[in-house]
């Protein structure tokens, strides 16, 4: 089981992780080049991009894999799911392009119409690429999947480096006829994303040729939408929890400080990518595994063991980052204008651990076909996020957003556990999990806030935690070494 999971994660997860690694690597160059005010449009538009992507895909990825176990006609299934996403993407691009000026005004960015247009096209292309990637996974072509994902990341990375790092060094002389325009600034990052998305779509276009309008099945589509719409609601609520706090900062703080706090908050939250990279790889590999092993007699025990491993790795990441945050964060951000936001990072890291556990637990409502509960849970989290942000941002700024994120994911994780034990019981080792979580959070908090990030005390606590893990998990570690 572990070997198969690791194999799936290595193939699909690695490529998806790499595409996130490149923006993670790019971020320090961007924050170094652009201060909070200049970076604000990028943080602003991309904080809403997640909502658009959820609407364009409308849960068809998870729905596709679920119905693949039920529908024998694969062409009909592929065509129905793909055309649903294609139409949604095309309608989105057309609507937003026609009303781009009015939308820019409503978005409080009337001078950023061009950047808004760029992000609309990027999101449209990403929407069109959604199902071709799913088709590659379903038809067992991991190499092509990985290569295209990696090409996307490489193209984006190289272009951003060219536009904002290399070109400025050539001054007015330019390079190959191109010169850096300071007035366009952060717009170069948008252009790089657009070109990368266009290259990706071109490379995936071959997969769309297998899609047939004649194979589209209205009856099947209605059944798939009945399964997917709760996933979509859950996704929307999830994005509210994850990125919409930037919009609350923009609209609830006074003009002049709002965009700066939004940019600082968005920049320092990038540090959480250390944890989300692992989570992304794990979940991409684990979802097909969950569905494939749902009928096995010992599936519950397998899920419980995997949860133990998942929690342990996340807790290690949490402590390691918090105890070394005083040197990691400034080194990563490369711009002292963002340092005022570093203190909230431990809270956001803890929130990321809670989110990972919640997503891992979500197997219960996906396998029991009760996806509506995914929507309910995300709505609960979104309500906590919205409530805390609206009430406390005017007083505490981005500190309110950080606490809102932590409490939101904690509430979702807790409620999901109890609902899951009722509808689809999994014998999680809760005493062990709570012990790991409590100890890692305690070590992280006292190291950073009480001992002011003292590197020697903090890393000693990390070693203590590792020793405890090795002792408690000695049996499973022994089995993994033998395998």
Describe what this molecule looks like in 3D.
With 483 residues, the chain is mostly helical. The chain folds into 2 domains: 1-216, no CATH class; 244-483, no CATH class. Helices cover 80% and strands 0% of the residues. It contains 21 helices and no strands. α2 (36-57) packs antiparallel against α9, α2 packs across α10 and α12 packs parallel to α15 (345-361). The longest helix has 32 residues, at 2-33.
Mean pLDDT: 87
Helix and strand content put the structural class at mainly alpha
How much of the sequence lies in strands comes to under 5%
Global Rg? 23 Å
Instruction: Tell me the count of domains.
Output: 2
Gross morphology:
globular
Give the N-to-C terminal Cα separation: 11 Å
Low-confidence stretches: none
**Count of DSSP E strands?**
0
SSE order, one letter for each helix or strand: HHHHHHHHHHHHHHHHHHHHH
Which bin fits the share of residues in helices? Answer: over 70%
Count up the helices. 21
Q: Main β-sheet, in a few words?
A: none
């Amino acid at each position: 089981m572990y070997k198969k999971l690791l194999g799936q994660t290595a193939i699909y997860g690695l490529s998806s992780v790499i595409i996130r690694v490149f923006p993670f690597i790019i971020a320090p160059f961007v924050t170094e080049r652009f201060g909070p005010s200049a970076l604000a449009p990028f943080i602003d538009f991309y904080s809403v991009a997640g909502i658009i992507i959820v609407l364009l895909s409308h849960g068809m990825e998870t729905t596709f894999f679920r119905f693949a176990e039920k529908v024998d006609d694969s062409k009909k299934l592929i065509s129905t799911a793909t055309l649903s996403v294609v139409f949604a993407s095309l309608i989105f691009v057309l609507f937003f392009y026609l009303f781009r000026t009015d939308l820019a005004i409503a978005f409080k960015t009337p001078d950023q119409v061009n950047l808004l247009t760029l992000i609309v096209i990027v999101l449209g292309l990403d929407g069109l690429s959604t199902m071709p990637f799913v088709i590659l996974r379903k038809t067992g072509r991991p190499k092509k999947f990985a290569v295209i994902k990696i090409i996307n990341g490489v193209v984006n990375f190289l272009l951003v480096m060219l536009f904002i790092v290399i070109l400025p060094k050539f001054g007015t002389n330019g390079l190959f006829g191109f010169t850096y325009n300071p007035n366009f600034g952060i717009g170069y990052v948008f252009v790089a994303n657009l070109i990368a998305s266009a290259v990706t779509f071109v490379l995936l276009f071959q997969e769309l040729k297998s899609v047939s309008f004649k194979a589209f099945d209205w009856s099947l589509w209605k059944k798939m939408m009945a399964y997917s719409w709760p996933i979509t609601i859950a996704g929307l609520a999830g994005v509210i929890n994850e990125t919409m706090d930037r919009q609350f900062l923009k609209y609830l703080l006074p003009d002049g400080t709002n965009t700066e706090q939004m940019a600082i908050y968005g920049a320092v939250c990038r540090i959480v990518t250390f944890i989300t990279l692992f989570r992304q790889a794990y979940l991409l590999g684990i979802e097909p595994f969950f569905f494939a092993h749902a009928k096995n007699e010992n599936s519950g025990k397998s899920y419980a063991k995997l949860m133990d491993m998942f929690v342990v790795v996340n807790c290690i990441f949490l402590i390691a980052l918090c105890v070394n945050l005083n040197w990691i964060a400034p080194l990563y951000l490369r711009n002292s204008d963002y340092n005022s936001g570093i203190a909230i990072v431990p809270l956001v890291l803890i929130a990321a651990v809670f989110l990972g556990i919640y997503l891992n637990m979500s197997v219960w409502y996906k396998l029991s076909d009760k996806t509506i509960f995914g929507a309910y849970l995300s709505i609960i989290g979104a309500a906590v996020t919205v409530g805390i942000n609206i009430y406390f941002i005017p007083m505490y700024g981005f500190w309110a957003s950080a606490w809102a994120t932590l409490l939101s994911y904690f509430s979702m994780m807790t409620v999901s556990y109890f609902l899951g034990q009722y509808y689809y019981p999994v014998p999680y080792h809760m005493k062990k999990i709570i012990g790991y979580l409590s100890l890692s959070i305690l070590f992280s908090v006292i190291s950073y806030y009480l001992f002011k990030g003292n590197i020697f005390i903090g890393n000693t606590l990390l070693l203590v935690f590792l020793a405890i893990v090795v002792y408690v998990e000695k049996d499973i570690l022994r089995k993994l070494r033998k395998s």
